Amino acid sequence: MEETVSSVVSELEDLRGNPQPPPLSEKTLTDLQLLLRHSLTESLYDELASKNLSPSSLIPPVASAMDSSSLLASDVFLSLLLSPNAPVFTLFTPISFLSFLRSLRRSCKAQSQPGPVQDASQAQPRKRKRAPRARAKDPQNDDGSSSPDPGLLLRVLEKLVRVMDFIHLDRFPETLKSLIQTVAELPATALHTCGSPAQYSKLLGLCSRVLDAVLEPEHGEPSATAAEVLKSLCPLALAAKSQARAFALGFVTGLGAKCDGVRKALVSFPRYLAMKAPEKAEPRALAVDSIMEVVRVLEVEEQIAFVKYVVQMAHGKSNLRLLAVDLILNLVTSLKNPFGVDSESGVSEVWGVWCLEALVKRCSDVSGVIRARALSNLGQVVGFLARDERTSVVLREFMGFGKGGDGSVVGGMNDMLRKRCMDDKAAVRKAALLLVTNLTALLGGAIDEVVLKTMGLACSDPLISMRKAAIAALSEAFRTFSAETVITEWLHSVPRLIIDNESSIQEECENMFQELVLDRISRATSATSSYSEFPSNRKMKGKGIDNEMEMLFPNGILYLLREICNGEVSPWVKKICTNLGKKKRLNHKIVCALQNIIRVSESIWLRHSMPIEQWTAPPGAWFLLSEVSIFLSKAVDWEFLHHHWQLLDKHEVEGEFKSPFVQKNAFVEEESVECNSVAWASDRVFLLQTISNVSVELPPEPAADLAHNLLKRVEEFNMHSTEVDAHLKALKTLCKRKASNLEEAEALVLKWVHQVLSRASEIIEKFISENSEQNTQGSFFTPPRSGTGKGRKSTAMSKSLSKAVTAIYTVGSLVIVCPSADMSNVVPLLHTIITSGSSGPKLNKLPGPATSLQQEAPSFYIQGWLAMGKFCLADGKLAKNYIPLFVQELEKSKSAALRNNIVVMMADFCVRYTALVDCYIAKITRCLLDPCELVRRQTFILLSRLLQRDYVKWRGVLFLRFLLSLVDESEKIRELADFLFGNILKVKSPLLAYNSFVEAVFVLNDCRVHNGHRESQGPRTETQLFSISGTDEKSRSKRMHIYVSLLKQMAPEHLLATFAKLCAEILAAASDGLLNIEDENGQSVLQDAFQILGCKEIRIPSTRASSDSADVEEEGGESGSAARGKAITQAVKKGLVQNTVPIFIELKRLLETKNSPLIGSLMECLRIILKDYKNEIDDILVADKQLQKELIYDIQKYEAAKAKAAVAEAVGTKPKSGSNQAPDVSKNLTKTQAQTFGQSKYSNKLPSDSRIASAMADAAAAAQARSVLREINNGTATPPLSSLNVPKVKSCTGMGNSKHVKRMDVIQSVMKRQSFDSDGEN
């Protein structure tokens, strides 16, 4: 060992006097380590003393070695400090300790990889892949190895823990700070250094011990040291999930038991984390988790203080508001007793209400991302709190639905939900629906009808996720309580989605219908069976039939059945039942339930001693039974069907219950019977459908008897028209059941069809002849006849008419049932009927008077057309001859019912004979402007279906005529049009709006002076009919609504192209003289173009290009493709404006020469364009500064004149009670000028003097602008007003002292410019 000591001392002696000694060699470091390990430091120090060397001479070369990233030197340095009887104060220096810390950091960073912290499972593969590269890049390490020994690193950390007991760092704050930062970084940087998870866990433990040691008082003030430790651990706490993050959070949460100074720093740490939290979604969620880990270990008072801080954060910047919204959710769901309902906790402050208030406010945030997040989190909070009865009571009171709820709170919550359910952002709408879903249980039946309607509209949203959310929200409301409004909205919104293009939505629709409708009705079996056990229940007796039924069938089952058979719902119910039946998902319990409901209804009716001939089953019961019986025929009881058929058929045959037709000669007393009559007829129809469905299961003899009975009923021709089809269908089905083969069945059908046709022909012919004779006789009776005879004659005629109408309807139905039947005898009769309405010279001459069935028997006349339409569907040759007659009648008929029927028939013809009808489509589209709303809606729906199925093409005038439906008087038609253009056409024909936009501008204004107008060669009256020409505000607003609807369907690139087309085909045409701007229609076109170019829908802001992605929170970096697309868009916009500005300048000069009132619209449009494309304008006009100054001046002058006109109007209307005038004035002001009037938008507190002063200020600004113009143009551009021949007028404000004010008044009196403000400034 003496040789070892001598070699070490000799090397140190060689370094004597060197101010920057080189590092010790590895051999010397190894020798020193050996001496220190065997506790031979005494001999070493003695030898140093013999050579006049101080023990401190060991430190500089060792420090140099540590600076060379030698971990061995670090081990030697710490061993020297730990050696027995070591002069610690002599050996320890801040410089050497900093060298030690640098060595520690470098040894770990040599193996660490840049990027986020990863766990060991993710890091090990990278280590194996990149280790050879590290050795190749750094072959000249001092220790000759590419990676440090993990065991050596752990030994160094162990010795560091021991050294902390010997040294006091309170005198060296920078050294202490460096130590804390180094140790805090080790869990992340040493991840790749440790060879195994066990070694890494040991390293984390040693780091924790070191950080615990630095918190001792001898190293400084604990509060300041703890703050530095927490600050250094913040990056680990906010990192991705890993062992390092767990270490940091574990260490921080363990500080709760420390001294007060450390705890003070711990209390402030969550706020520090909140300030450092990243903005991206996933890292922000990790930050929230870390914050909550720390908050949970705080005391209750400290937690409440942090809650107050978070509530204040909710009013800060956008990133803090978003973080506060997430924190509030975790605070309410993680901490105890947010509402003070737990008396044991002793918490007096209800901090949960503060959180709810902040969350509700953020639901109306200006940022769509924050709104969506707040709504989503509020929904989760509601769902969490609703689990506990005590917290749910507090929540109800806060929401305004409890006993102590304030009506204004309810209104405020409902108002917020309405707005958010109709928000522009899809993510906000979806979150609002989820909130409504969770609020349903709390609302207690108090769902706002507007919110319900909004949820129903959301079922038609173009986004699949939105439709699913709307289904879930409405279904949860229906599941929770069975209010009639909820049932109605659900049935009108959800079942229709069975025809949705998305299969998952169809399946969800089927599942919800089965659960909420079929299963709910099936559960009624138990109620009806229990009732049958107590037929003489006295408690229910005397309460009325309706009340008794409601008590037996709660949860709105009867109302549900009644709404199912609604005309708007029944088609979707049929489709759903068919789908469920094909999938074998229908249960026989539904059949038993419906049969029991009908039986119980009959029993209650009889128990109340009511006449059975007036009984009808609960509405919808027979309808639903007829739909499900197709797939559950074995579950239907034949005795049940037979009993009710005999019941209904018996009273009809005996004449005790009639189903009268409402004719123009019908008595008023019969109107009260009509509703019950229709219900009775509907029961028979659905009963017959049910019998047809289960006919396969019927015994042969009852089937034959029933067929004979049905045929007998048909031949009497006294049924309601709704019953005829059911009877014929049932007859055909029973014939097939009776026959042994198909040929025999067809023969049987043909036999009774010809029999019925013969009988019907006789009745029709007889009625026509009687009508002709009556008209012949009536033409010679000049004096009035007696009233009694006339009444009897009218009654007989009414019965004859009713029979004839049924006969002719039956004829038409027979053609559908059996198209192969011989109809040659009936066609001439139908021809006579449909041509009886045509007038000619010969029909008006005596002695042969006209036989106008159209006037005498309108229902018979309409049924004649309907029957002829069915004949034409069965016979192509007949259709070719009669389709022109249908079109002619459609144009001239005054009967809305007939026009409606003909439109339906023409739609059927279009499917069957597309080529024959195609040339008449333009005439059919005239019904889009029919005076009857039903005809307009029917035409729109039928043509839309034909267009979707490609039977009709979007060519010619069809698309342009459809545009008028967007501004129809009927709200239902407008909703249908919005759905067609916004959902269907946007997907099916995305270029349609772009290709026809400019043409639509000319057509809507009835302008025929441009080549783009396709109808310029058409008749003038027709083009005027389908235009909204006019300069009045109502016409302009209608046209603008159509333009905006089309612009919303365009992609960003199409908006740019439309902008260019408007400039090229309208503005350039006007400046070149192709468009006559002196013509009223031409002016309207130009003014519309200015409004379109200035509207916000045609602009492409940064958020519009990625509107879909903005709805979802995509907070990642901008991808390369998005960046390229943005660059291309900017380039296209710049080129577009380069071509646009010269057109505007030329058109401006032209309008100025003609003193056109359109200058105001042009300047307003130009101002918006210059504002939106400010950067591009600067680049375009960089070479022409003069032009740039002139444009800016013109805009300033226009703005000053407009503001002064607004002020003058305000002053002029001051004496009037104009409390509502302030908003109108403020709308016409620019952003800067609105500051003057902003405070008086909703009140009229602005004094008269201040308004006058404002007017003077505007006049002074205008004078200054003129002086600027004179400086630019050397005083030659603008002639003095005195040289102009203008009339002398007085100032409207009474301030005529100023010369400039007078001149502005003169300008205002000569040129009155109309202003059309853009929505983009709102």
UniProtKB/TrEMBL annotation:
Protein name (Swiss-Prot/TrEMBL): Condensin complex subunit 1 C-terminal domain-containing protein
Keywords: Cell cycle, Cell division, DNA condensation, Mitosis, Nucleus
Feature: compositional bias, Basic residues: 125-134
Chain intervals with Low complexity compositional bias: 1-10
BP terms from Gene Ontology: cell division; chromosome condensation
Domain Condensin complex subunit 1 C-terminal: 898-1071
Main location: nucleus
Biased composition (Polar residues): 111-121
Subcellular location: Nucleus
Annotated region (Disordered), positions in chain: 1-23, 111-150, 775-795, 1104-1124
Domain of life (superkingdom): Eukaryota
GO cellular component, one term: nucleus
Keyword Cell cycle: yes
